[in-house]
Write a structure and sequence with these properties.
The complex is a heterodimer of chains A (259) and B (285). Chain A has 259 residues and is an alpha/beta fold. Chain A has eight helices and ten strands. A six-stranded mixed sheet of chain A has the order 6-7-8-3-9-10, sandwiched between helices. A four-stranded antiparallel sheet of chain A has the order 2-1-4-5. In chain A, 48% of the residues are buried. Chain B is mainly α and 285 residues long. In chain B, 80% of the residues lie in helices and 0% in strands. In chain B, helix 7 runs antiparallel to helix 9. The chains are: A alpha/beta (259), B mainly alpha (285). Chains A and B meet through strand 6, helix 3 and helix 5 of A and helix 1, helix 8 and helix 9 of B.
Chain lengths: 259, 285
């Protein structure tokens, strides 16, 4: 039934072998699935291999063990179903925002009048329709990241991978971006895999929170978040929310030897 | 544009928010840039005039004999009594220097790109290039004369040999500084190597390539002069040699001034082209 999953990570491991033959196990026996349309947050300490995990799912790196299926298919055939948002927006400064959004389609030689319209719709959706012909240096960090999100969505991917997309933003911008991404996700209906350092961000956004422990990266908890949608700011102060945050914190704390 | 103030206000508010290198910084308005460059121009002229005044003063106070040092006044006097002579020879040097620069730039960018893209060749190519660079290009001039004769070509090749290396390094560095996220983006979208080169890599590397070109342009003119020293019957290098033989210091200093003017002019032309071609650099710097 793996074809029913949006992403299916089956016993994936990743080992780097250094030149002197030392093996560094970054990921070990990862096994989890993402359902179609599901929002899954991944938390873990830095160095726990979260980014490596995302890179193996996006096909940028190969897993050394196990297999990853995107909607039941090998990654190599599925790349077109994936959009990716990085920690920094990395927009091209010589392109205006619309052209930055269209870049992935230019790579694929599939820019059409319709796709341009779609790109404009995306910019309107994130509130930047007026700034389509502006350049990235005229935008704030949060706005730049919104353009980067449009760029990831322009090819109508069914899976959106986000690697600490708001890590470089200040707290207030980050909060508003969380609302934004919830809205975008609900409108596009794509599956999201969202890597973050922030436990509260992970809980607030996720249908599930997957906790990755470090050395080697492995799944130590997979917590289902039962908070109604759409979520509002008030949910951050609810008892349920605090309970989930505490639970996840305890999972991370134990492996790090803190508690 | 009514939206402009708001954009700026937003950008300033989130100054710390955006990650480098494309974070919005203070955005000088167009008029500000212009008035800045005008005042910079005035300052440059003032500096030059002060330099000439100091030079004249030193010559005047210490009463240097005319065969040791002359002041700018007699140099300019010489320049304006024989303007055709200096102009014609300057043109020769300019042509040689420019030809060498163009060739060196083309070859340098090519080599830099090869160094970057053919990563398997890098361990072989890089030490070889460094080895070649350690040879003083001036020492190659006699060889080029053997190869290309006494005319235009040998000087252009000396200029090329000197102009080449900064472009190799700067092209490579520029390509090497493309953020890995952009590489990933290209890979996720199955961009062909050529598409990635044209749409990302080379444009991204352009500022660095221009930096190399700015270094190379004055080096190239110097290279042409060295070529003329060794085997020339025209050009500013030849003018200097001739003046040297005749202990004609005003002529020699006039040639120096023309040389400096040429190098300066070419430098500013490249600077101007880079500013026109890379407008975003004015903001992201």
């Amino acid at each position: 039934m793996t074809a029913d999953y949006a992403i299916s990570v089956n016993n994936v491991g990743k080992t780097y072998t250094s030149r002197d033959g030392q093996e560094n196990v970054v990921l070990k026996d990862l096994d989890f699935h993402v359902n179609p349309g599901e929002f899954v947050s991944i938390v873990g300490q830095s160095g726990s291999g979260k980014t490596t995990l995302l890179n193996t799912i996006s096909g940028l790196q190969d897993a050394t063990e196990g297999e990853i299926l995107i909607r039941g298919r090998e990654i190599s055939e599925a790349l077109k179903d994936i959009g990716m948002v990085f920690q920094s927006p990395v927009l091209l400064p010589w392109r205006n925002n619309l052209d930055n959004v269209l870049l992935p389609l230019e790579f694929r030689d599939s820019v059409t009048p319709e796709s341009k319209e779609h790109a404009m719709e995306l910019l309107h959706m994130v509130g930047l329709g007026e700034k389509a012909t502006r350049y990235s240096y005229e935008l704030s960090g949060g706005m730049q990241q919104r353009v980067a999100i449009c760029r990831a969505l322009v090819s109508r991917p069914e899976i959106l991978l986000m690697d600490e997309p708001f890590g470089a933003l200040d707290a207030m911008t980050r909060d508003s971006m969380n609302f934004e991404i919830q809205r975008i996700w609900r409108r596009t209906g794509c599956s999201v895999l969202f890597v973050t350092h922030s436990i509260s961000e992970a809980v607030w956004l996720g249908d599930r929170v997957v906790v990755v422990g470090d050395r080697p990266g492995r799944i130590i908890a997979d917590v289902k978040i039962d908070i109604e949608r759409p979520r509002a700011k008030e949910h951050k102060f609810s008892e349920d929310f605090a309970h989930y945050v505490a639970e996840i914190e305890s999972h991370i704390g134990v492996t790090a030897g803190i508690s | 544009m009514t939206t402009t103030p708001r954009i700026e206000a937003d950008a300033v508010r989130h100054v710390e928010a955006g990650p480098p290198p494309m974070s919005p910084r203070k955005q000088p308005k167009q008029s500000l840039i212009k008035s800045e460059s005008v005042s910079a121009g005035i300052k440059a002229v003032v500096g030059l005039v002060a330099l000439f005044a100091l030079w004249e003063l030193v010559v005047f106070i210490f009463k240097f004999p005319k065969y040791l040092l002359v002041g700018p006044v007699s140099a300019f006097e010489e320049l304006f009594t024989n303007p055709g002579y200096f102009a014609l020879n300057a043109l020769t040097t300019l042509q040689e220097g420019l030809a060498g620069f163009a060739l060196g730039t083309a070859l340098g960018v090519l080599c830099g790109a090869l160094l970057y893209y053919a990563s398997f060749l890098r361990p072989f190519l890089y030490p070889a290039l460094i080895a070649i660079d350690t040879i003083p290009k001036v020492a190659l001039a006699p060889l080029f004369i053997v190869w290309f004769g006494f005319g235009f070509e040998s000087k252009a090749f000396v200029a090329m040999a000197i102009a080449f290396f900064p472009l190799v390094i700067n092209t490579f560095d520029g390509l090497n500084s493309v953020p890995h996220e952009l590489q990933d983006l290209a890979r996720i979208n199955r961009a062909s190597k050529l598409k990635k080169m044209m749409k990302i890599d080379f444009i991204y590397a352009l500022p660095s390539i221009f930096t190399g070109a700015k270094i190379s342009i004055s080096l190239a003119v110097g290279g042409a002069v060295v070529g003329e020293f060794i085997a020339g019957s025209k050009g500013l290098g030849y003018v200097i040699l001739l003046a040297n033989a005749q202990v004609d210091l005003p002529s020699m200093f006039a040639a120096f001034i023309v040389l400096a003017a040429i190098a300066l002019l070419l430098f500013f032309i490249i600077d101007l082209v880079s500013k026109k071609l890379l407008p975003w650099k004015n903001y992201t710097k």
